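G., the chain you wanted modeled:
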Amino acid sequence: MYATRANRCATFVLAAGLSLLPSLLQAQITVPANRRSNGGLRPPAEKELIYVTLPGTLEGSWDQNGNGIVVLDASNNYSFVKRIPTWDIPASSYPEQVAGVTASPVTQMIYVATRGRLAAWDLITEKKAWENAYDGTCCERPQVSPDGTFMYVGSDLKDFWYVVNPRTGDLITKVRSPKSPGAHNLNLSLDGKLAFMAPNGKVMGIAETATHTLLRTIAFPDNVRVFVVNHDSSLIYTNLNNLLGFVIADVKTGQIVQRVEVQGFGWPENWNVKPRPRIPHACPSHGIALINGEKEVWLDDGLNNCIHVFDNTQMPPKEIASIKTSAGPYWITPGVDGRLAYISSGDVIDTKTRKIVGQLKDEYGRTMHSEKLLDMVFANGRLTQVSNQFGNGLVADDSCCGPAMPAVASNSRN
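Predicted structure as tokens:
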């Protein structure tokens, strides 16, 4: 499939990407005219910012970038803007690891979950609006509904998900999925009508958000890890424990319709050894996204520090490229318009050219390895657009990526 073993990761970058000058990186990023900041008497009409929550990774020291929310200017080579304080942690203690982040243009708030509490910050004042620990078993990744009326957030590895009022933090109810102990990732459909509740276990629960009740469950062959859904929530693409690849499940039938494994790259022989390689999250692949109007699946590879690119216009999806990252990739967050992907390695990748075009660094020039960040667009100081922390499929703008891929028939291939 590839010419030599040495060039299997097609897009090669130096270990820290330091050979790319900032001016060169910025030249490769197309900045919309209404967000360009080149000085002058009046600022641009819009401001695009990356909000990076810290500490947000299992890779490296919990103190390597401090804690809080580091804000970067996406239109100016990801230059440092400010650090928003979250919790005041004594130097003698470790900060709480961030478990997830989401934001809402409706409420004008950003929500940060840790394994211990959930809190909201007003994006206009940057003051904490509320905080809640609920019954002491909070929290995992949260998601706010499109209309801002409710938010789902996982309990800390229990068998239920909290439903919360995003404006006040008050508990509305809990949704239990008894077959899904180990509540972990949480994803909403694009219209907010379905909540996909995944444990670090084999059975995913799906809830109907109109009534906040469990609708059905889907059993997977191994523990569900990072997962995404396509634009109409008919398909789930998910990582599994012990798989460098992904499976695709049909939401309506609950059947696994495709299983896709990376070919080569030392798989599976480099995984099936004792002791196994030490990789954050203890699985070979922890990160997946639907890119370029669902025409591609991007898959993290923690064994080789690569992202594998699959053609998703055919079934099963076929690998067509790979991208070498500057550190371990364990999450993929697409930007608001899908043109860029933010990787937990700290790399910013152009989704069309598959080239690294930037890096996310704190105010001291240290690369930030966070799996919990958001791309946000503001107009007149108010949030108007925000990315999803999950790389769900979207109907793409023709100027970016062409039309979205049509729904895939459920050809069984377990």
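The first helix runs from residue 22 to 27.

Shout if anything looks off.
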